[in-house]
Specification:
The complex is a heterodimer of chains A (267) and B (311).
Chain A lengths: L1 H36 L16 H32 L3 H14 L3 H16 L4 H26 L2 H9 L4 H12 L1 H16 L26 H9 L4 H32 L1
Helix pairs in contact in A: 1-10, 2-3, 2-5, 2-8, 3-5, 4-5, 5-8, 6-7, 8-10, 9-10
Chain B lengths: L1 H29 L1 H7 L2 H4 L3 E6 L30 E5 L2 H32 L2 H16 L2 H20 L6 H24 L4 H9 L4 H30 L2 H4 L19 H8 L5 H33 L1
Helix pairs in contact in B: 1-12, 2-12, 4-5, 4-7, 4-9, 4-11, 5-7, 6-7, 7-9, 8-9, 9-12, 11-12
The chains are: A mainly alpha (267), B mainly alpha (311).
């Protein structure tokens, strides 16, 4: 009887894992078939107005890249503070708040940026979208930096101090270097996450049918356009949405796997 | 230089604090109009964007207060110059948010636990690693993809089995469940992995089966961590927008059955924000504030109570 219960339990557990994998396979195969069906290299050459995706892909990269440009230094600096400078209550408070911020609903962050940037500046803009994404990215970078720096052995820091290096030199030249791979991985995973975000961009950057590098205007976004296209009645729009989804997912998964590959090489 | 660097890092850390406070106060400030007008009745009022005739004593300008939504023709547009006021109540999206989350949790919980057990205890190391990465990749897929896949491929099957609409509370909840499944499984696995090997080996040495070890050793040991993980996943489900937006139907009507369409807070915001102004926009901010407070509370409970204890 005990053995039977055990068997049933093991079978159920394996079954759950198979269900999980089946969902992954189902989604990927759907994307592959639908996406590849409407995939064409001309998608990379034309803008949305001409039935292509070029402006959207470039736009999404610029939005996420700018967000990373803002979010990475701020997040790393905050992570360094938590781990290296502040050891008291305040550092713990920031750590907890950053964890909470990491799980804050992305649409709420979009609404926040809408109220503090879009309304005062009079309209949606690429900057507003990038800032919304940066706010999503900062806590993830803080979390990674904090965790990775805590793995660096104390002796390394002491050796640096003993050589007469000032604290910030020790942090920049020794501690960060030692934790480089881990932090890079975390940043890549964070980047993969924000590049696929839609909700924070809906009313901050919106999207645009045209190629644009002007960050003060509505900015082309792949994800927002997928949402728009998928809701349109024409078959051709939906096909384009599938092709865009395919490219987006491929991008996200490649960035994600690249990050994992780095950590694996380290071990 | 040393001083500058230290100050900069302190400033960046403080930025987190400032942003969170900023979010709270901005949402509060932007929803003030709606809070003043509807108060706490907002939470229990099921009418969204409903015109009512008011007595002449308190006339409120509301020419541009109406939200136009393709899916929704709640009021007739008769251009009488009657003194009317538009009422906004948040009950429908609040109920929709809670119910979709509940369905998602009910669906994802047993499967996520099964996967976590499989990864932590059953599979040999190399298989566990590969399956683990696959599960985490599922978590990395953008939510909008879950929405599209859910609408065109998953929902029709569910609707065939259960009946009712393809866009409904049920299909939205299930797709949301698929979405939080990998997240929940991954962090539950991490909690289970904290169980000391000695404890497990002792139990095996006494002749316990795998099931008994998991039930009597691992679960009690990592219980607080597991509960924390579940609550964290719940927090994520509450605020999810895109996966739900495709599937919930986006109408401000209380669901009468599990397979009838309704709306959730994030979807109400996603679909109506662009066209809203005045009290209508303020009411959306009010919804955002409610969502922010709920998820802040949920995540805090998970972090401060359960996950702290687990460490």
């Amino acid at each position: 009887m005990r053995l039977l219960v055990n068997k049933i339990f093991l079978v159920l557990s394996v079954l759950s894992a198979m269900i999980g994998l089946a969902f992954l396979a189902w989604i990927l195969i759907t994307l592959f078939i639908k996406g590849l069906g409407s995939f064409h290299f001309k998608l990379f050459l034309n803008d949305l107005i001409d039935g292509g995706l070029r402006n959207l892909i470039v736009g999404q990269f610029i939005l996420a890249g700018l967000a990373a440009f803002i979010g990475i230094p701020l997040g790393m600096a905050a992570g360094i503070y938590i781990q290296e400078y502040g050891r008291g209550k305040y550092a713990n408070l920031i750590r907890d708040l950053s964890d909470i911020m990491m799980s804050a609903p992305s649409i709420v962050i979009g609404a926040f940026v809408y109220a503090v940037i879009v309304v005062p500046t009079g309209g949606t803009s690429g900057f507003a979208g990038a800032i919304a994404l940066a706010i999503m990215m900062i806590p993830v970078v803080i979390n990674t930096t904090d965790n990775m720096l805590s793995l660096v052995p104390r002796e390394l820091r002491e050796a640096g101090i003993a050589l007469g290096a000032s604290k910030y030199r020790v942090i920049l030249d020794i501690v960060i270097k030692a934790a480089k791979v881990g932090i890079m991985t975390g940043i890549l995973l964070a980047f993969a996450r924000i590049i696929g975000e839609t909700a924070p961009l809906l009313f901050t950057s919106e999207t645009s049918n045209y190629f644009s590098l002007d960050l003060t205007e509505s900015f082309p976004s792949l994800t927002v356009s997928i949402y728009d296209l998928a809701n349109e009645p024409e078959e051709s729009s939906r096909d384009l949405a599938w092709a865009a989804s395919f490219i987006l997912t491929l991008l996200v998964l490649v960035i994600n796997l690249t990050g994992r590959f780095f950590t694996r090489n380290k071990d | 230089m040393e001083k500058i660097f230290q100050k900069l890092s302190l400033a960046s850390a403080t930025l987190v604090f400032v942003i969170l406070l900023g979010i709270f106060f901005t949402l509060f400030n932007s929803s003030k109009l709606a809070i003043d007008e509807f108060g706490f009745d907002f939470i229990t009022n099921p009418d969204w964007n409903k015109e009512v005739v008011i007595d002449s004593s308190s006339i409120i300008e509301n020419e541009s207060d109406e939200i136009i939504d393709e899916d929704e023709i709640l009021f007739d547009e008769d251009d009488e110059e009657a003194e009317t006021s538009t009422i906004y109540g948040g009950l429908v999206p609040i109920v929709g948010t809670l119910l979709t989350t509940l369905i998602a949790l009910t669906f994802a919980l047993p499967i996520a636990m099964g996967i976590a057990v499989f990864l932590a205890e059953i599979a040999p190391q190399n298989i566990s690693h590969v399956v683990g990465v696959a599960i985490e990749l599922l978590a990395a897929i953008p939510s909008i993809i879950f929405g599209m896949w859910g609408l065109y491929y998953f929902a029709p099957i569910v609707a065939d089995i259960v009946g009712g609409y393809q866009v409904s509370l049920l299909t939205a909840g299930l797709v949301l469940g698929v979405m939080i499944l990998p997240f929940m499984a991954a962090i539950t696995r991490d909690s289970m992995n904290t169980t000391p090997g000695v404890l497990k080996e002792s139990a095996y040495a006494l002749g316990a089966t795998k099931f008994e070890v998991i039930k009597d050793i691992i679960f009690p040991y990592s219980r607080t961590g597991i509960i924390g993980s579940i609550i964290l996943a719940l927090g994520r489900a509450l605020g999810e927008t895109m996966a739900v937006a495709f599937l919930i139907g986006s109408i401000f009507v209380l669901p009468t059955a599990i397979n009838s369409p309704t709306i959730s807070i994030p979807v109400a915001m996603a679909n109506n924000f662009g066209e809203a102004s005045g009290v209508g926009e303020s009411a959306l901010f009010y919804l955002a504030l409610i969502l922010f407070i709920i998820s802040f509370a949920v995540i805090s409970i998970a972090k401060f109570y359960f996950l702290k204890k687990a460490n």
